[in-house]
Amino acid sequence: MNTPIPDPGRPEENAGPLGAEARRRRIHRLVAEHGFATVEELARRFGVSAMTIRRDLERLARDGLLHRTHGGAVACRGTDAVALALDEPSFRARARRHAAAKAAIAEAALALVAPGATIGLDVGTTTLELARRLADREDVRVFTNSLRAASVLGQGRAEVYLPGGRVRRGELSLVGSLAARELARYWLDVAFVGIAGLTRDGCFEYSPEDNEIKQVYLARARRVVVLCDSSKFGRMSVVRVCDLERIDVLVCEAEPPPALAAALARAGVALRLARPVAPEGE
Question: Which domains does the chain have, with CATH numbers?
Answer without folding.
Answer: 20-75 (1.10.10.10), 83-273 (3.40.50.1360)
